[in-house]
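Translate sequence into structure tokens.
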Amino acid sequence: MEGQSMSLLGKIMAVIGISVVAGLIVHVRDPLDSILGGGYPELWRKAGLAGAPARAVACIFAGVSLLAMGWLYRLLFAPLELLRTPDEVGYIAEDGRSRAQAANEVRRRRKTGELPPVYPNGWYRVLDSHMLERGDVKNVTVLGEQVAVFRGTEGKAYVVDAYCPHLGANLAVGGRVVGQSIECPFHGWQFRGEDGKCVRIPYAEKVPEFAKVRCWHSMETNGQLLVWFHCDGEEPGWTVPEQGEITRGEWVYRGRTEHFINAHIEEIPENAADIAHLAHLHTPGIVSGVDLRYTNSKTWEFVRHDWKVQWEAESEPTKHCSQMLVKHALTVFGRHWPLLDMDVVARQVGPGVVFLLFDHSFLGRGVIMHCVTPVEPLLQCVSHTIFYQSNIPPLVPKFILRAECIQFERDVMIWNNKKYISKPLLVKEDSAIQKHRRWFSQFYSDNSPRLRYQHNTLDF
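Result follows.
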């Protein structure tokens, strides 16, 4: 936020500076011209530039107008895309340290606790569909693995292990799409996206039967590409449901946010069952910001959020799902504003995907897809992608996404600095937390990977 403020201040100062210089140029006149009330300054007439100041002002005015119109267009119509770096949110930089230094220090000194397995079985978002055009190749880190994600010329997306089994080149760094296969940039070996089998070696007469890369189970739905992970290699036992309004084009893409969180994956969805934290952490209005040192400032007490929450697990055949029912109310200067009351159903599907469904008589309907994907054991990539009614002004869903982002970043500051407590000290009112942990345990198997070591630094 500080960097953005400085950037905005720099732009404002630049515009003011240009305007001042332009004003000086226009008004520089020969003394005689001032006395006689002549037209252009003598300096301009002698140089044969009569009319140049007016043209310069016109150009500056046009440039400023274009900048203003571009800013206005982005504000009103363009999707909101707020992509945070791993050290940008959730750390307190003091004593002249940078946020990166503060983040590295926290990670070095923080106790992790007795952690559950680090990679639960389930579906995980790799990227949004619009980020992968036909013929594109992306290098992505997911679940501690490097994968090559590419879209074939027929439009289908594939995910394979990134490293070529020949001599280890990264297929996603310089590799290219050939039909429905990906070609290694090192020696031209081509691997089929459907099953990972090598189908061509340009200098060999025969392709060995065993020449292949691992192909990940993937599915593309709701404008997202997801992969299936199971520590024992089992086939998918369930899928992420399709949101019909997105498929039919009734709800359109209005933006996304992305954060990297230094915590165990289970800490993040567990918030749904931690009902008490909502009343304490999220009651201050969004104008209070995200820095927990100041969210309870009396300056912003006139705006408050009120929450009523209930969490429950679903039963067969959807026992891999759970629901959080949220009733939100807004109070301004002690007065309740019913128009801004909102009911939200947050349905979690497996360990990595949550649908936040909005249905409001005035603000319309839509969904935020909240996705958690492990990058490495204690680093999670969390994205919020919003699709909303196409006939609702884009400013409405963008405001909802921005408000969600502010509230979420308060949690990030907690997650980035907390320790996982395997046997927490709970009171009766915290019973949903234990229920959530029992529900979440279904995504672990005997062979689920556990944390063997911890990096000493994030190396930002």
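Note: Confidence is low (pLDDT under 50) at residues 1-7, 28-37.
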